[in-house]
Amino acid sequence: MEKLSANTERKGAPMSDVALARKLVAEIGGDCWDGKADLIDRVYDAICRHFRDLDQPHSWTRRRVRSFWHREAAGVRYHEMVELAAVAHAQKLERKRIEEAKRDHAEFVTRTARLATALAVQDEEFHREAIEAFGRIAGSQDDIAVERTAQRRHEALAGCDRASGTLGAGGCL
Predict the structure, then answer these.
(1) Alpha-carbon Rg of the chain, whole angstroms?
(2) What whole-number distance in Å separates Cα of residue 155 and Cα of residue 169?
(3) Is residue 70 part of a domain?
(4) Burial of 46 (0-12, 13-18, 19+ CB in 10 A)
(5) How far apart are CA 107 and CA 126, in angstroms?
(6) Number of domains, the chain
(7) For residues 141-151, b (16+ Cβ closer than 10 Å) or e, as one string?
(8) What is the tens place of the pLDDT at every residue in 30-59?
(9) Does residue 72 share a domain with residue 19?
(10) Predicted TM-score of the model (pTM)
(11) 161 strand-pairing partners
(12) Shortest CA distance to 109 belongs to which of 150, 147, 148, 142?
């Protein structure tokens, strides 16, 4: 059979089965990959992982994945198209779960930093343990922000004589 050219995927033109398989390989591979060999390895690993999770045997090889990517395959068998579509769908769901987890974690870190800052502003000495715990829980650069806020508060209170309540050089808050 004739090798398909890159022009087979134009808008309006019917998509061949090999072009559709190539599109599914690209979806499985995702956006970030280091060259064609890395893409093919990632797709093959994703297929193997998918079937291992389902405890099913498979007949996929790196060469078969590569033949789809390079448009060298003469055709695509029905079961291959179905399996590629299932793996692509599973990968899409996995990426979506990862993005949601990253977003949730960022919200958690922001909320934790906000609580730690509020406690530091209210009474940093009294809430020291809670502020440190929030810093350990968040485990990010927010610890530095909390420490800077506490340091500014200490500098502002440096001139204040707490026992007498009189103002010093820095003023008393």
Answers:
(1) 29
(2) 10
(3) yes
(4) buried
(5) 26
(6) 2
(7) ebbebbeebbe
(8) 876 677 788 899 999 999 999 888 888 888
(9) yes
(10) 0.61
(11) 166
(12) 142
